[in-house]
Structures are given as C-alpha cells and as structure tokens.
Amino acid sequence: MSAAPDIPPDGGQDGGGQPGRRRVTSHAELEQVAFELFAMNGFEQTTVEDIAAAAGIGRRTFFRYFPSKNDIPWGMFERELERMRASLKACPTDVRLMDAIRVALVDFNRVEPTEIPRHRRRMELILRVPALLAHSTLRFAAWRDVIAEFVAERTGQRPDSLAPQAIAHAILGVAIAAYEQWLDDEGADLGGLLDAAMHHLGAAFADDLS
C-alpha cells in the first residue's frame, strides 16, 4: 500500500523546510521520512513540524500530502480499498463467497519483497501504538464496510444486516490475527498466514454460505 511517486501538491511553492535539503516529492518519500523519525523518537513524540522540517518542506505542504500525522501509517489506504472493492465486484458469482473474500484479502495485503520492512513498520504502528487505536478504528470500519457490502450483495441482505456485519467483523479479526503472527515472526509468510486463517474461517461458515 505504498504511495507511488508524484509531484509536489503545492508545485514546490511552499517556503518551509530546511535550507539546502532536497524536498520530498511524493507521499512515499514523506512517509519514509516520518517512519524514520517514528523509529528514532517514537510516534507520539514526533510532531508534524518535525516531519516537515526533516522532509525539507513547510507545515502547510505536509497537510497537502496527509490530513494528519495519524494518516501517515495508512499510506494510500483509500486507493487500495477501492481496488479491493473492484476485485470483489469482478469475482465470478460461481466462486463461493468466502473463497472470493479470501482471494481478495490476500491480494489486498500482497507486499513486494522489497517493501516488507516498510510494511512491517507500518503495521507495527497501526496495531501496536495506543495513540493510533482510535484512528485505526475508523479505517477498520471503512474496510469492514467493503466486505459487508459484498456479502450483502451475494446474500440478498442489507449491508447493515446481522450476517454481513458479523462476517465483516470476523474477517477483520482473522486478518488482524494473521498480522499479529506475522509481526512476531520475521520468517513468516503474510500471504500464507492470511490464506490459512481464511480457510479456517471459511470452514466455519461452509454450511451457511455459498
């Protein structure tokens, strides 16, 4: 879920930052600067001003890249969420519901080998920094909505009905459990953990969903 290189949101006109330092020119670069500061100083101790100064940009420019400091660990979450929604919608109807979600879940969380260290830092922040828990709750709710919408469409129910909501919450729990295992074991394969966890969950729903 890393950001792709892009042009500065302000066209390079913000006069802030450190003189002589090359400005960051993408979400990914600003994210990397922030991650380094979080690792050195701690998430809560690092301010927006610290990040902007280290990135060679002004505070105003920072907010053109990210709405808040809490949004940095989530990277390009909204874009990836839309990709998962599209993947689910494109899934053939003859694929069993839980199998369709399992494939989409693994694909949503696919990480290039070179990006694994950064993704580990990202998920450590999201899952293990108390200051981010409230913000993460909002993002997790948006993620569950995508799953609930798909379940509702397949089962002829409303997204806010019990079954779609219960399944969405269960799948989020499965994903978090897999991530916790992955974070605790540097040799673990994230995709394999997610796939195995979803197989277990799918077996529990096998008699009720198709």
The span between the termini is 30 Å
Determine the CATH superfamily of the largest domain: Tetracycline Repressor, domain 2
- What is the C-level CATH assignment of the largest domain? Mainly Alpha
Query: How would you state the average pLDDT, rounded?
Result: 89
What's the total count of β strands? 0
Q: What is the CATH topology descriptor of the largest domain?
A: Tetracycline Repressor, domain 2
The major β-sheet equals:
none
What is the overall silhouette?
elongated
The secondary-structure class comes to mainly alpha
Provide the succession of SSEs: HHHHHHHHH
> What is the number of helical segments per DSSP (H or I, 4+ residues)?
9
**Fraction of residues in helix:** 55-70%
The CATH architecture term of the largest domain is Orthogonal Bundle
Estimate nothing, just give the exact number of structural domains. Answer: 2
Give the C-alpha Rg: 19 Å
User: Which strand-content bin applies to the residues?
Assistant: under 5%
Weakly predicted, low-confidence segments: 1-13
How would you describe this protein?
The chain has 9 helices and no strands. By secondary structure, it is an all-alpha fold. The protein folds into 2 domains: 67 residues, Homeodomain-like (Arc Repressor Mutant, subunit A), CATH 1.10.10.60; 130 residues, Tetracycline Repressor, domain 2. α1 packs across α2, α4 runs antiparallel to α5 and α4 runs parallel beside α7. It is elongated and about 55 Å long.
